[in-house]
Amino acid sequence: MSTLTLTRPLSPATAAVLKAEFTLFRREPGSIFWIMVFPTALFVILGSIPTFREVGEAVPGLRLVDVYVPIAILTALLMACLQAMPPVITGYRERGILRRMSTTPVRPRSVLIAQMALHGAAALVSAVLSVLVGLLVFDVALPEQLFGYGVALVLSVAAALALGALLSAVSRTSKAANAVGAAAFFPMMFSAGLWMPVQTMPDVLARIMELLPFGAAAQALGEAAAGDWPSWSHLGVLALWAVVLTAAAGRWFRWE
């Protein structure tokens, strides 16, 4: 079970599962709202505060509304991969759906691939929406290092999906998945900078946050937005977390 699996050609069975899961996903207005609408809505609310639109001393040369675009993107990732995806997969396990699938040509792995693809795509749509709203509503410039921004975003998605897969692996029931997801959500949001952007944290705290996947993601996206290539250390942290979490999820994942 790996995020790299998504890059391989889909088998007919996996494609059929993806189509079915997409239909079910469209019928879940709650998930669509929290992943694709809430992060941008929160960004708009924060951006409407006058002090967020003024250049201050906290982040030299930038407004807080500029800094919060990556945070809105990471919020969407966290909503998709920690709050939405694990309960679905654990619910399938809890109801015996994965076990029954193992006796058909559709392998249980197909459900996992479909869920990771759908939630990853929804988070990317939310990311594009946040960037466009920032540009059109608050005059936030597009990332100057666009390719580096894309690399950082892809690695951020990979790390987030891997974390969601791990939560799906260790949670026996959907209630447990909700509880574990909530326990992980708030520390990850703090590391992403929702309450205090990483750039404004004291040096020691900022260094600690940069060792966490979403702290490194916030820094990498911010660097690319400013026109610099994302720090290799931040990209390395994201890649390492993606590999380690994926390996752990594969080790502990159970279909029954």
From TrEMBL:
TM spans (from-to): 32-52, 67-90, 111-140, 146-167, 179-198, 232-253
Domain of life assignment: Bacteria
Membrane topology annotation: Multi-pass membrane protein
Keyword vocabulary terms for this entry: Antibiotic resistance, Membrane, Transmembrane, Transmembrane helix
Location in or out of the cell: Membrane
Span of domain ABC transmembrane type-2: 30-256
InterPro entries hit by this protein: ABC-2_transporter, ABC2_TM, ABC2_TM_bact-type, ABC_2_transport
Alphabetized PANTHER family for the sequence: DOXORUBICIN RESISTANCE ABC TRANSPORTER PERMEASE PROTEIN DRRC-RELATED, TRANSPORT PERMEASE PROTEIN
Protein name according to UniProt: ABC transporter permease
Provenance organism: Streptomyces polyasparticus
Species classification: Bacteria, Bacillati, Actinomycetota, Actinomycetes, Kitasatosporales
